[in-house]
Write a structure and sequence with these properties.
232 residues, 25% helix, four-stranded antiparallel beta sheet, elongated, alpha+beta
Amino acid sequence: MSPLKKKSSSSGFSLLELLIAMAITMVLVTAAVTLLASGLRMRTRENQKSDALADTQRALNIMSREIANAGFNLNNNGIVTTDSGPNKIRVRSNTNKYEVDNGSLNNISRNNVGEEEEDITYFLNEAENTKYLVRHDEFGSGSTVLANRIDSLNIYYFDRKVTYTVPSGGAGSDITNFSSPQVSKENAKYIVIAISVTLDAVGTPGSDGYQPGHSVLLCSDVTLRNWDLRFY
């Protein structure tokens, strides 16, 4: 007699089990993709913030250095009062007045401000829904964009060193509570510059990964070190 064959007890997944497994997998994948997308948006926003702040800080350093040199070899503080104000400043200096040319001073060409980097203007230019901090060299390279994503440029003029209040956390668009009142531009010895950098909102309110707009305020105090050369 031949041996009896054993009936196989193994069986595959039922259709219902497969559907449940697929649904769980889709939920997990969706959650993972959402978290990944949110993380990428946050990283992109932080990179944009770092780039914007770095550009603006470099621009502010250049601006501060050149404003500090205003009035060199001139009989005033170097500020062009008719072309300067709370959101724009134009400064002059005669940096090459005493340079030697072929063994002698060329007073004809060096007695006045009219060379490269001797007449500089800083201002904001608005284009394509953003604002650019611009440096304009009247007798040199023309206009150069130093930084973008700028919200505001505020310039204050004083005859002494001052203290002031910066918004909490460095956010906001301006500084307040100066320890001394402003003076006329021709009498200024001390300049305070406040530049606000704006980061646009990401996404829409209530959506996943939404990040509201944010402003960061950068400030610089500049002493016009040549303002009293006229009295030497």
